[in-house]
């Protein structure tokens, strides 16, 4: 099970050219939280994957010391816990552990950014947890 709303994993290999991901992303671009992460070095041997995401199972937005968690089913929570821990917990709750799939670098995960304003949160963490 990938998550409660998407119980199966389906992988399909697609033909690729340098602009293929832009074409595939176009219909997703208007969906909530749509993002595209493109491989940068076209001649590098690890340049095999562009990542397209939209309509996430959950979003986390932190302002100051408060994080608002919104789930795709409409549920919302507010937390004052460390946002890095929250990302890890939400992933654990929504994306159960799966066996690795050959030639696929990961299955599921989190996409986003942590602004420099989270520096205050980082300073409160034990030193070993600050290594991101």
Automatic annotation (TrEMBL):
EC number, as in UniProt: 2.6.1.85
Keywords, in A-Z order: Aminotransferase, Transferase
GO-annotated molecular function: 4-amino-4-deoxychorismate synthase activity
UniProt keyword Transferase present: yes
Gene3D superfamilies: Anthranilate synthase
Class of this enzyme: transferase
Coiled coil, from the record: none
Domain Anthranilate synthase component I N-terminal: 19-114
Nucleotide-binding recorded as keyword: no
Pfam hit, one: Anth_synt_I_N
Record InterPro entries: ADC_synthase, Anth_synth_I_N
UniProt-recorded name of the protein: Para-aminobenzoate synthase aminase component
Organism: Photobacterium aphoticum
